[in-house]
User: What shape does this take?
Amino acid sequence: MACPGGVSWGGMRCAVLGGGQVRRPRAGCFGPVFSRDVFTTNVMNGRFFSRAYRIAINVFWGVIPLSGHALELHRDKASPYDLALKGRLEGMAIDDVRYLRWSELRSLPTTKIRVDGEFVPGEQEVTIVMLDDVLTKLPRSSDADAIISFCNDGYASIYTTEFMAERRPFIVLEINGEGPEKWPPPGMKFNPGPYVISVADQFSPGVSKIQDAGHKRPWGVDTLEFINYRERFARLYSGALDTPVESVKSGRDIWINSCFSCHNVPQENLGGIKAARPIQILAMHATYNPDFFRTYVRNPTKINPMAKMEPHPHYSDSQLEFLIAFLKLTATP
Ligand code: HEC
Assistant: This one.
C-alpha cells in the first residue's frame, strides 16, 4: 500500500490526471509511512541530542554570529544540482545570487529514513537534511525570518520561522543512496530533482493532515529566497488589506499557503508564476463573478475541461467566502 490518503508521490497521480495536468504529484505520504524506521547517520543529528540544539536554533534565528557558518556561498553555478540562494543574506545585494553545491549539503549531518512507495514502488531509503540545519549554516541577515522556495516550473512555497520550528521541513538529498545526478530513480516517471523539500509526521505529528500540505512538499526546487516576511508581503497587508476583519485575514492566510504557489502578485513578483494568471484576474472573478470563482476553485474542470489547476473540493463554503473577501480588497487601493 503506497499511500493511506490515496495520493501518492510517484507518477501515479499524475498519470491518472493525464499528462497535461498542472497538478504536481506532490508527496502524499511522508505521513504515517515515515514513522516506521528512522536511524541517523550522524550523532550530531540524533533526535534526542537535537532537541536542545533545535530550541537554541529557534531562539537564535536571525542573531547567529557569522563565525558559526559552515557553508560556503559560491558566486558561480557549477552544476544543475547547485541550489541558488537570493535575498537577505549578509553581504548580498538585492539581485545577487549565490550557490550551494549538492556535495556540501550532503556533507552536513543527515538522517536516513525508510519509507514505502514515496518516490518509487516498494521500500526505499531516503537521505534527508533538516532545512533549519542548512539555514543556520548560512549568513542570514538578522531580519530574515522566512524563506520562499522556487521550483524549476515556476511553483513557489513559503516557510516561515514559526512553520519551520513547528513542522520541521527537510530537504531530500538521496533516494536509495543516489543523488539528483542519477534521478529519476528507476521506477519513477518524473524527475523530482534537483531538490525536494518535504514534511513528515514523524518529525511533526499531524503535518500530513494540515490544509494543503502538498504546498509544503515541493519538488523540482532550485532556489531559496531569504525574506523578511512583513516587508516582502507588505502589499497583502497594507491599504484596504490592513484590516482586522477576520474573513479577510483568513482569506489571506489561505492565499499565501496555497494559491500563492501558482498565482503571482506581479507588482512585487510575489508568488509562483506557474498559473500565468495573476492575482488581479482572480480578484476580478471573485468580485464580478463569484459563482464562477467558487466553482473554479473547487472543481476547475467543471468549467474548463482543459483546466490544469488542481481542484480544491476540500474547501468549505466559508473558506471560499474568505478568499473572495480577501481578493476583492486586493483590487481596492
Ligand atoms: C498548482 C497550481 C495552482 C494552484 C495552487 C492554484 N491555481 Fe488557480 N490556476 C492555475 C492554472 C494553471 C490556471 C489557468 C487555467 C487552468 O489551466 O486551470 C488557474 C486558474 C485559476 C482561475 C481561473 C482564472 C481564469 O481566468 O482562467 C481561478 C479563479 C483560480 N485559478 C483561483 C485559484 C485560487 C483561489 C487558488 C488557491 C485556493 C488557486 N487558484 C490555486 C493553477 C493553480
Remarks:
- The two ends are 51 Å apart (CA to CA).
